[in-house]
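Example 3.2
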Amino acid sequence: MNQTKINDFNEIITGRRSIRNYDPSVKISKEEMREILTEATLAPSSVNLQPWRFVVIDSPEGKEKLAPLAKFNQTQVKTSSAVIAVFVDMNSLDYADEIYNQAVEEGYMPAEVRDRQLPSIKGLLQMMTTEQFREMNLIDAGLVSMQLMLAARAHGFDTNPIGGYEKDQIAEAYGMDKDRYYPVMLISIGKGTDAGYKSVRLPVESITEWK
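Structure, written as tokens:
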């Protein structure tokens, strides 16, 4: 089901709400979900490694498997069009050659720049501890997750970021290597049945300093 796209950026950011109740009759086609994910992955990432990985859980079987892992978010699981599990790939450095070679092929980067940057990038990241590398990837995953929610909003859908679930079980539940794929959050997506609630934000003056 295609929604009317929203092109007003102010409406996208001010109209976004954390929605927990969705119209279960609304389905998102794989084609439109691919569009949303493609737009989300335009988010920046450290040295463009794009460590984010997604599992789109939209089948009855997939949701049934998710339900006991998200005990306190049953409404989102049951009524949403899909729940997107966001992970980071701890082997994302393995894709560096593919990414930088494609950048050269597309004319985005001179070959000499790739040849100079890649060894430096690999050397630097290989010296990181697992925790340092995970922290770097989690920042990137936060960027893509926020962009995903805004992209969904632009497509006329609502979302809810979910942190309360069994993170130690989610990868294996969907046949993924839990040592490689580190869970970030779940994002429910669909057509909300209510408008959600406005929420307050601290004034910029109290959270910002100019030096």
